[in-house]
Amino acid sequence: MFKIKTKEFFSIITSKIVLKLSKTFFKGGSNFPGKVALKICPDILKTIGSGYRVIIVTGTNGKTTTTSMINSILESSGKKVITNSTGANMLPGVVACFIENFSFKGTNEDKFAVMEVDEANVKFITKHLKPEIITITNLFRDQLDRYGEVYTTLNKILEGVTLTPESKLVLNGDESLLGDLNLENPVLYYGFNVPIDENKKIDVNADAKFCKKCKAPYKYGFVTYNHLGDYYCDNCGFKRPELKYSIDKILEVTHDYSSVSINGKEVSINQPGTYNIYNGICAYSICRELSIEENAIINSLKNQQSSFGRQEEINIDGKEIKIILVKNPAGYDEALNTITLNKDSIDMCFLLNDNYADGRDVSWIWDVNFEKLKDLSIGKIFVGGSRLYDMAIRLKIAGLPEDNFSLCQTHDSLLENIKNCPNNKIYVLATYTAMIDFRKFLHSKGYINKLW
């Protein structure tokens, strides 16, 4: 029997009851049960997280997909693993995940916890748990009203990392902000050793353009996207670190998947876009560091399924709907780059909200290069969300034909438009709460079986 204190016992039992009720009556419960547990026992995470080999995935973009990839690889390798697959990545959500999987019977078996963690919440997790591995995917401007600039986000993460100096850091080497962090932790890097294209200049709206050592502009051997790539400073000599795991060949890139070579091994990543190549090599690197057999990793990535709202495909009366979460300029641009690989005739839907989880400030949409859509064969353009007029104006200024616009004030209107649109492929690009709300609506209509 697992020995715990009375307060911890009541915290776990009460939270489990709340979790059961939330799932039964509200079809959710990914955060509130954790809040209940923490209210009763603020230190409960130390108890319920005991015995797990913990992997933390944090950073701006790619957390949910990378977490899902690592989880799938470990599961397919026969490992016992838990994960916060709903994307509830703040402290209460992480606690709720551990509570749901907690047993009062102790066990000595090897078990993993792969946790997506919000950048500002890393310090709350590492206060109680000592992860085996922490990975930081990238750092982009995101929710400026909450995080500020990218340097602020980095500092929030490092507050948590410094609490656990024995944790191994698996970092994106193409992210200049993650070079030479001057930490006690063991560190290794992954990234690209070959270019995606001929681009060597970063865009004017890119995020970390200046050397973190001397503030001179970076130069690049190549740019993958935004400010990521083979960076160097010819003023002070600061440059990208040596990569332990690298993309050494681009074999095929399509709007459905990518094939690359990682350290000489051909790997097919069943998710499209450069950002998913990064997610794939991150998962690959972590699982190799966990001594997972290489062929098991490759087979899992080849069969990786979409996380909800991340390239998720839904059939609506014969129409193929692909939902893509977009939340900042860097991620939005990469989503658009992936869509432009599709040369078929398509329809598009843009959903923009400004709730707390999205960021109140939506001015970032003016940093997204919507102009690249002008050359695509787009039929109908649906616009919705609480800030649909802001989005419609941005798309009009980008040169998209306003005669093709349909402003959808309700989900019912949007659904009816989708059913009657001329093409069978519709891309839905939605901010976080807009994506959640639309999926809940589709679930209520029977188009989605699993809400979370």
Description:
The chain is α/β, with parallel strands linked by helices and 452 residues long. It folds into 2 domains: 6-302, Mur-like, catalytic domain (UDP-N-acetylmuramoyl-L-alanine:D-glutamate ligase), CATH 3.40.1190.10; 310-444, Protein-Tyrosine Phosphatase, Chain A (Alpha-Beta Complex). The protein is built from 14 helices and 17 strands. The protein has helices at 6-25, 32-40, 44-48, 63-76, 91-100, 122-126, 144-147, 150-161, 274-289, 294-302, 329-339, 388-397, 411-420, 432-444; strands at residues 52-58, 80-83, 111-116, 133-136, 168-172, 187-192, 219-225, 228-232, 245-253, 258-262, 265-269, 310-316, 319-325, 346-351, 378-384, 405-407, 425-430. A hairpin with a 2-residue loop joins strand 12 (310-316) and strand 13. The chain is globular and about 65 Å long.
Quick structural gist:
The protein has 452 residues and is of the alpha/beta class.
Secondary structure: elements and pairs:
Layout: H1 6-25, H2 32-40, H3 44-48, E1 52-58, H4 63-76, E2 80-83, H5 91-100, E3 111-116, H6 122-126, E4 133-136, H7 144-147, H8 150-161, E5 168-172, E6 187-192, E7 219-225, E8 228-232, E9 245-253, E10 258-262, E11 265-269, H9 274-289, H10 294-302, E12 310-316, E13 319-325, H11 329-339, E14 346-351, E15 378-384, H12 388-397, E16 405-407, H13 411-420, E17 425-430, H14 432-444
Parallel strand pairs: 1-3, 1-4, 2-3, 4-5, 5-6, 6-9, 13-17, 14-15, 14-17, 15-16
Antiparallel strand pairs: 7-8, 9-10, 10-11, 12-13
